[in-house]
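Weekly puzzle thread! Below is a chain. First person to post its structure in token form gets bragging rights.
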Amino acid sequence: MALMITDECINCDVCEPECPNGAISQGDEIYVIDPSKCTECVGHFDEPQCQQVCPVDCIPFNPEHPETKDDLMEKFLKLTADK
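Winning reply:
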């Protein structure tokens, strides 16, 4: 399941540089996560790094994008194939 950033986001800028897939960017009002790039850090780390550094705990799993660990690993492999 991809992650999402809720409106509790305080725009502290700590999550964006932690994302190894470049899935986090500044949106109109708060940071946003591109679900097509979010692998919950599968393939990179044991836990989502953005969740680890978020001071207000506003990065839950996105119920609109359910994915298994296998799905996330497949996405990771596709995202890193050209690197």
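Puzzle host: Confirmed. Bonus trivia for everyone else. The chain has one domain: 16-80.
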